[in-house]
Amino acid sequence: MPETAWQQVALHELVQRRAEVEQEIAQLEGRRDAIAREIASSYAGQADAVARRLKGFQDYLVGALQDLAVAAEQIELVPQPVLVQPSPIDAAARGQEVSAPAAAGASAGGPFSGDAQLIRTRLAAFQGQPDFYDEPWKLRRTLDAPGAACLENWFLEQAGRGAQPSSGSRSRNALVTAAAIAILGELYGERFQTLVLANQPERLGEWRRGLQDCLGLGREDFGPTSGIVLFERPEALIERADRLEERGELPFIVIDAAEPGVEIPILQFPLWLAFAPGPGELMREEEYY
């Protein structure tokens, strides 16, 4: 494709993306106005809860505007060759199929079985003293024993695909997720991207703050092309995960405890972690929102 034609295609995609974001921003501004009206008419006992919702909405709106700016800056107007590589999960599965005859009678291992010792070592280290000054993308907070047990089960028993009980709050679920991201980063480097699904801007704002704190990240680490991407709708997340796999990269999908369920298309991806809330947590969510 001639360079001018490629630039036109790239610019068209940017304009289309901008229109989508502007439409989302318009919807969010309408939600902001509704929250403002609710503040004006709320009772004194509800003021604190409404203020928290407004703060979460503000964080999410600012993040959406920054994501659009990052997309505009990083768009490639000159085509670059893309090396498509197989998913590391698929490669591990094929390797196990080849070695299966030699291991007849032994229990079948998951894709992380070869890294079981490393995973257990890291989970044990995460339960020690936190390193608040560690480099970005490393866990800077202490993981409690239930969180470590949850991740050991998810990695080694569920092969990185399944639901785990919620830790009781969004901030603690973000801590568990941050520990998983730190381990996956050590296993796959930059070949994977974390996609978080939560159906309210306020919830996405909590996820952003929690992961920033636990992994020492900045706002530039939450963008459409790298780092962690936040989604309010499952359709957009699934589309992004498909594009990552087409490029030979690995999507890691995280589903908030307040989501009503896991969309069927998500089940096809090799890495997904859904948090299942307890009855008490569901009641708190209903009261809070």
Secondary structure tally: strands: 5
Into which percentage range does the β-strand content fall?
5-15%
The biggest beta sheet reads: 5 strands, parallel
Radius of gyration from the alpha-carbon trace, in angstroms: 21 Å
From the coordinates shown, what is the CATH architecture of the largest domain? Answer: 3-Layer(aba) Sandwich
Poorly predicted regions are: 73-108
- CATH-assigned fold name of the largest domain: Rossmann fold
State the CATH class of the largest domain: Alpha Beta
Q: What is the terminal separation in angstroms? A: 50 Å
Note the quaternary state here. single chain
SSE ordering: HHHHHEHEHEHEEH
State the secondary-structure class: alpha/beta
Q: How many discrete structural domains?
A: 2
Mean pLDDT across the residues is 79
State the shape: globular
Specify the number of helices. 9
Helix content: 55-70%
Widest sheet: strand ordering:
1-5-4-2-3
Could you give the topology of this structure?
Blueprint: H1 3-41, H2 47-74, H3 88-99, H4 116-126, H5 145-157, E1 161-165, H6 170-188, E2 192-197, H7 201-215, E3 228-231, H8 234-246, E4 250-255, E5 272-276, H9 279-288
Parallel strand pairs: 1-5, 2-3, 2-4, 4-5
Helix pairs in contact: 1-2, 2-7, 4-5, 5-6, 6-7
Q: How would you describe what is shown here?
A:
Helix 7 links the parallel strand 2 and strand 3. Strands 1-5-4-2-3 form a 5-stranded parallel β-sheet, with helices on both faces. The N and C termini lie far apart (50 Å). It has 9 helices and 5 strands; from the N terminus they run αααααβαβαβαββα. Helix content is 55%, strand content 9%. With 289 residues, the protein is an alpha/beta fold. It has 2 domains: 72 residues; 191 residues, Rossmann fold (3-Layer(aba) Sandwich). It is globular, with a radius of gyration of 21 Å.
